[in-house]
Amino acid sequence: MWEMLWPILLVILSNTVYNICTKSTPSNVNAFGTLMITYITAAILTAIIFVFLVKPENVANELSHVNWTALVLGMAIVGLELAYIFAYRAGWMVSTASLVANIGLAIVLIFVGAILYGESITIKQIVGIVVCIGGLFLINMP
Question: CA 12, 15, 21: angle at the middle one, nearest 5?
């Protein structure tokens, strides 16, 4: 049970801190400048943990297994970070921006799962999509 729970709790904690930091990023700071510092910090932290976990003598071997997904994920993360910075600068509230984005994401991923990974779409999921779309309308009504 803990094996399933701790990653979700980490997502919730990290996403909470992430949204607080993104919402608190000053509007007069260049978005790319702040992301550069963010990614330098992340790269240093990731490199330290990576080398510690795999041992220095295994770094080259471990990196040889990396494929195209790492580069595309890096581009997707930049897009994600920029989108949140600009969403908050456009006036989205921290209480709704992530909710709206994640509901939209969940709906899209149901179809991605079906198309790319052969996952089935159930009646419950279709009902859930309809409820989520209704919720999106309610959340965004003036």
Answer: 145
